[in-house]
Amino acid sequence: MTSTGNAATVTLPEQSGELLPPYTGEMSPCAKCANPEAFTRYRPALGHGLLEVNGVMTRGPLPERLERTCQRCDYQWDEALAPAPGTRPAAAEEFARALEQSHAGWALDLSPECAEHMAARLLEVMAVRVPLDFPAGWGAGPRPLFAAPPPAAPAAIEPGAES
């Protein structure tokens, strides 16, 4: 905290907006000393506030996370929560096809290119997981170039027309 005359100014650390790295498993090597063993503690989400990690102040909000601490050198780092058992990360192609199919039947269907772009952007900020028994290549196969046309409305019968 510095003061200038009667006004005091506080320099805050940058707000943490980074995504957490994925959970690395039981044997997680330390980035500082390469020791393969780390303690793990669950940490609830942190609202707006300050937190000291490795002698550096960081500012919330932070999501709920796993705090890893090296058993040898006490270096700390955060990782995302462990994934649900029996799941695996969704492939971008699977996610894109799911987006296409979930949007089918709407006035404007997603083109494969649009769905692939959306899937790639969403997977940059989301962790999408599917069951281990999810069929590989789900949704693969020929894709229609255009949405199916709506069914034709029944022709109106003009008065006086013979049936």
Describe the structure.
It is a single chain. This protein is an alpha+beta fold. The protein folds into two domains: 13-79, no CATH class; 83-148, no CATH class. The chain has two helices and nine strands. It has helices spanning 92-103, 112-125, and strands at residues 2-4, 7-9, 38-43, 50-53, 56-59, 65-70, 76-79, 87-89, 129-131. The strands form four sheets. A three-stranded antiparallel sheet has the order 3-6-7, with no helix packed on it. It has a two-stranded antiparallel sheet with strand order 1-2. Strands 4-5 form a two-stranded antiparallel ribbon. Strand 4 (50-53) and strand 5 (56-59) form a beta hairpin. The longest helix has 14 residues, at 112-125. It is elongated and about 95 Å long. Residues 10-17 and 143-148 have low confidence and may be disordered.
Helix content: 10-25%
Fraction in beta strands = 15-25%
Count up the helices.
Answer: 2
Instruction: Flag low-confidence runs.
Output: 10-17, 143-148
Inertia-based shape: elongated
- Neighbour order of strands in the largest sheet: 3-6-7
C-alpha Rg (nearest Å): 27 Å
Based on helices, strands and strand pairing, what is the structural class? alpha+beta
Number of domains: 2
The first-to-last residue Cα distance is 92 Å
**Main sheet attributes: strand count, strand direction, barrel closure:** 3 strands, antiparallel
Defining traits:
163 residues, 22% strand, 3-stranded antiparallel β-sheet, alpha+beta
